[in-house]
Amino acid sequence: MESGSREVFAVTRRDGDARAGRLQTPHGPVKTPVFMPVGTAGSVKALGPDDLRKLGARIILGNTYHLYLRPGDELIARQGGIHRFCAWDRPILTDSGGFQAFSLSALSSFSEEGISFRSHLDGSRHLFTPEKALRIQQNLGSDIMMVLDECVPYGTPYAYTEKSVERTTRWAARTLAAFSPEGEKEKRPLLFAITQGGFFKDLRTRSVESLAGRPFDGFAVGGLSVGEGRQEMYELLAHTIPLLPEGKPRYLMGVGTPLDLVTGIGFGVDMFDCVLPTRNARNGTLFTSVGKISIKRREFAEDGGPLDPACPCYVCRTFSRAYLRHLFMNKEILALRLNSLHNLTYYRNLMDSARRAIREGTFAAFRARIAALYESISSVKRSI
Amino acid sequence: MESGSREVFAVTRRDGDARAGRLQTPHGPVKTPVFMPVGTAGSVKALGPDDLRKLGARIILGNTYHLYLRPGDELIARQGGIHRFCAWDRPILTDSGGFQAFSLSALSSFSEEGISFRSHLDGSRHLFTPEKALRIQQNLGSDIMMVLDECVPYGTPYAYTEKSVERTTRWAARTLAAFSPEGEKEKRPLLFAITQGGFFKDLRTRSVESLAGRPFDGFAVGGLSVGEGRQEMYELLAHTIPLLPEGKPRYLMGVGTPLDLVTGIGFGVDMFDCVLPTRNARNGTLFTSVGKISIKRREFAEDGGPLDPACPCYVCRTFSRAYLRHLFMNKEILALRLNSLHNLTYYRNLMDSARRAIREGTFAAFRARIAALYESISSVKRSI
After folding, report:
1. Would the CA dihedral through B213, B216, B217, B219 be positive or negative?
2. Alpha carbons A71 and B88: distance in angstroms, whole number
């Protein structure tokens, strides 16, 4: 399981704690830091694989919970796997399904065995064990699989969080024991562990320490962005990220805003995913080089200029703010696609710029610039 | 206003009454017979101009009523016209707005002056006169403009239909009087009249005779596909189309199914528009070389083959029926785009095949083949 002669991940450049790297997957390499668009049920909402290629997405995420329930992981396996099914030939990471089983379904309960839950679609009963979550992801044919974990809600007391962290570690060990990747070494999928620990630094430490020595291909930080304040999240990240193994990719799950991303990179995070850019896009909130804007605003009604003059995407090269506003106000389906295309391009460019800054040794200045942008924007928002 | 040395329209080949031709517009030539996708409010629903180019759309239609209300024709004029606003540089035909003012809005009423109506969006009062409908379309920068007409509902008595036909002719004369195309002769927009007459052949004759001698660039048949049976529509078409001027383009408005299209072409129609292929697409009904299918059907759940092996479109080259069914059942936004892309490709190919058959002198056989397909499909549908 150890990478041995094959280098799954290499840090190619450091700038402070920030890293530029390269992750090898069965569907090719991924340059880091990277943001992964979320393709919940086998589709990044409103976009086709042609759009994703056009905007330069290097890797996307699929949700195990959703794909398991519909259309089913076994159906996808019979259809030749998730890549063929979705017509996406670049890497795909799948989460473990634990977070959605807990957050989306009624009557979910955790035991040593796994997570018992009812489908949010039809109320049917299901059980995710660590072994089953792994098998589902193997059926999907994921490039990067995540171990089943328990993500505790914000405010969970110490005693429960401690028990939960210990169980998550036992689940990780069970997953590892069940993991026997098929095929050639070069083509095997990767398996990442998820560290937890709620909002207690000593439990975060314990979680990392209990997992870091095991032969996982990468390590995620889970259980953040669940209702805590930004400062609290950043403090926990500052505490946790340096504890993770230096030579393995580090993935901050479900986070976040552009500011969160550059902050995370500054702490040494390599990978991110979040529904924010696509969900915001569908709500008309767009990221630009001068900050966040709502395309609904009246001032854009006759604005013939591009959404973001600094953006190279199809949307900014082709349409005016006036047209984008018109599409959105008129509830045109096309608005969802164009807005999503743009926001994901913004995120991709943000990651590319971060990588470039790391390689040039100017990451601190880059991070400060983005932070200033989003702080000034927040105060603009408050004044409206 | 007569075409003079400039040939607005040329019939390049005849096969029985069917014609292959070429229509010259300010945004380039259009080969006929042609089907025009409907871009109601400046967007063919769920598709971008990139998709429309990819599927080979030669001309699209915009609805004057919708664009007038939102974002407004004057705004579009200030933004450089509809082509620039929508980033579509091929021809655009706009309807007169009369049909929607009557069918979508509450409290519409017809007088000699025009159509008075309330906006379906906010209840505001508006008046479309023939002159105003023309001015709106000039503001939009349409390539082919339609005169304001009255489309009477199915079942309208003879006396009212007769009065209405006479008024529609007077409105056409007023439109012509107000029409003073700007710019060079080669670049001027075209103006089409709309013949009416309900379901009375003598009134259809009278409408055509009162309009055909005037210097319009083309002639439409309106007021069909409003609830009559297929046979009744075909009989009226067989009666009306031969009355229209030979050398001018003939446009059958708001029609229809693939069978309607090949039947219309057989009578000598050159142009069509209809929401059917895009609306059906959004409902999961897809046209294929073996007839209509509903992508929802359970039998497609594990069908790894292309939607239509005979179709060259992006969707059929890229995705399986299983994936398309999954997207649709999961209410993924992408389903709307892919289904629309496919159905409009089917319509474009149908028109291309019709044109080819006309050029090869085999149109009757082609029409019979399509008719048999849709008749056998209807009986399959009944047996389910």
Report:
1. negative
2. 37
Q: Which of A51, A73, A95, A260 is catalytic?
A: A95
Range of the domain at A51: 9-274
pLDDT of residue B378: 40
Reported pTM: 0.96
In this structure, the answer to whether residues B48 and B190 fall within a common structural domain is: yes
Which residues are CB-contacts of A102 (< 8 A; sequence separation ≥ 6)? A108, A110, A115, A117, A150, A151
A237's enclosing H/E stretch is helix A230-240
Residue after which a domain boundary falls, among A243, A274, A305: A274
Domain shared by B222 and B356, yes or no: no
Kindly state whether residue A4 falls inside one of the protein's structural domains: no
**Using one digit for the tens of pLDDT, what is the confidence trace for A33-68?**
999 999 999 999 999 999 999 999 999 999 999 999
Contact residues, chain B, for A336 at CB < 8 Å: 333
Active site residue B95: yes
Nearest CA to B219 out of B239, B193, B237 is that of B193
- Chain B residues whose CB is inside 8 A of the A332 CB are 41-43, 45
How many whole angstroms from its chain centre is CA A338? 21
Query: Letter for the amino acid at A334?
Result: L
Q: A350 with A265, same domain?
A: no
Q: Which DSSP state fits A302?
A: T
Exactly one of B143, B217, B260, B273 is catalytic; name it: B273
Report how many domains make up chain A. 2
Residues pairing with A292 in the sheet = A287
ipTM above 0.90, yes or no: yes
